[in-house]
Specification:
Layout (H helix, E strand, L loop, with lengths): L6 H8 L1 H10 L7 E5 L16 E4 L10 E3 L2 H15 L2 H4 L8 E6 L5 E9 L2 E9 L13 E4 L5 H18 L4 E10 L2 E8 L13 E3 L3 E4 L1 H9 L8 E2 L3 E7 L5 E7 L1 H5 L4 E6 L6 E2 L10 E7 L2 H14 L1 E5 L1 E4 L12 E4 L2
Antiparallel strand pairs: 1-4, 2-3, 2-4, 5-6, 5-8, 7-13, 8-9, 10-11, 10-12, 13-17, 14-16, 14-18, 15-17, 19-20
Length: about 350
């Protein structure tokens, strides 16, 4: 019985094709886009209507899984086939999503990317934080790493982002609850990439602290959202004065995770507040675009965003991850009866 976003609005936000249609119809900046059935042969697509470069993506997966930039026809064919394999994998098929039967192709949008965290209270939009993404996200894959707030955008650019955000939220039909939005900015304006009916993913919300009436000066994002659902007055909510940020530690190569060294040295970096390693020994690591996880998270707080970014990068350089390749030993022949079929993980 608690209030929330309309189900239909949440469904629209989860489907990149339907949400693009809504945003385009409202006159917002949207890249050219078209979807193809999963069974389509990319070799029969002489050239995507969007032209090159373009971005191929699933309609509903998160964390940039399966998102690939193609600069030419060969890239396009290979990218389509990789995404098809991802969408046919057991962990995706078990969700039985209609959107998993399509691959979307969009024109590539140049420019820096930002994320916006906030909430909608009975239709009224409150922006809680605007995150810069300092690392360029130009492809071929689009793994997110750094989130730093407050944004270093000029005031005029921030106003344009908020204006576009409010229009996009109304168009998508979000009414009461959290949102996580992502945009690209360039000389042609503000381009909505995603308007999600949820809060920020993973452990990233640990980078946010708020002053909320009745909850104190160090309230978490989750506490603020529960208060909103319970009908509390959260309009006076304010993010802390300090700058803060998080690094989602990327998986740079496939293999078996055996541990990490240098955590104490990384933790000692100035302004670093916490390091959480989420990978488990023996876990098989798969990088993007097939993978959908991180090695862990680094958090930092400082007086200004520049120091937060420096702290996150310094801490990351001090971490040394032990990732060893997974090797397969093939079945022996009759002339080699001593050879057995087995899988050797590690050395």
């Amino acid at each position: 019985g608690l209030p929330g976003h309309p189900i239909e609005a949440a469904d629209v936000c989860r489907d990149k094709y339907r949400s693009r249609e809504r945003l385009r119809a409202a006159g917002l900046n949207v890249p050219q886009f078209v979807r193809f059935p999963l069974e389509a042969d990319p070799r029969d697509i002489v050239g995507p209507p969007t032209g090159f470069p373009c971005v191929l993506k699933p309609l509903a997966l998160s964390a940039s899984r399966g998102v690939i930039r193609a600069n030419n026809r060969e890239d396009f064919i290979q990218s389509f086939e990789r995404i098809r394999a991802i969408l046919r994998s057991p962990d995706v098929q078990v969700m039985r999503e209609e959107s998993s039967h399509y691959v979307q192709v969009e024109s590539y949008i140049e420019g820096p990317e930002i994320a916006v965290e906030g909430l909608v209270d009975q239709g009224a939009v409150t922006v809680l934080a605007i995150f810069d993404k300092p690392d360029p996200l130009e492809g071929p894959y689009f793994e997110e790493t750094l989130y730093v707030t407050p944004s270093r955008l000029e005031e005029q650019a921030r106003r344009e982002v908020v204006t576009t955000l409010e229009r996009a939220i109304r168009v998508c039909g979000l009414f009461h609850g959290p949102f996580h939005a992502e945009f690209r900015l360039n000389a042609r304006g503000v381009w909505p990439l995603e308007i999600a009916a949820r809060s920020i993913g993973g452990l990233c919300s640990k980078a946010l602290h708020f002053s909320v009436p009745g909850l104190g000066e160090e309230a978490s994002l989750e506490k603020a959202l529960i208060a909103l659902a319970l009908g509390w007055n959260v309009h006076p909510i304010r993010r802390e004065r300090a700058a803060s940020g998080v690094m989602m530690i990327p998986i740079e190569r496939e293999g078996i995770y055996h541990g990490v060294e240098g955590v104490e040295e990384a933790q000692a970096a100035e302004s670093v507040t916490e390091i959480v390693i989420t990978a488990k020994p023996g876990q098989r690591l798969i990088p993007l675009p097939e993978g959908c996880s991180y090695l862990g998270f680094i958090f930092a707080r400082a007086h200004v965003p520049e120091l937060v970014e420096k702290a996150l990068r310094t801490a990351h350089r001090r971490l040394r991850f032990k990732i060893e390749p997974a090797m397969r030993v093939l079945q022996g022949t009759d002339k080699q009866p001593h050879a057995k079929a087995l899988r050797v993980e590690g050395k």
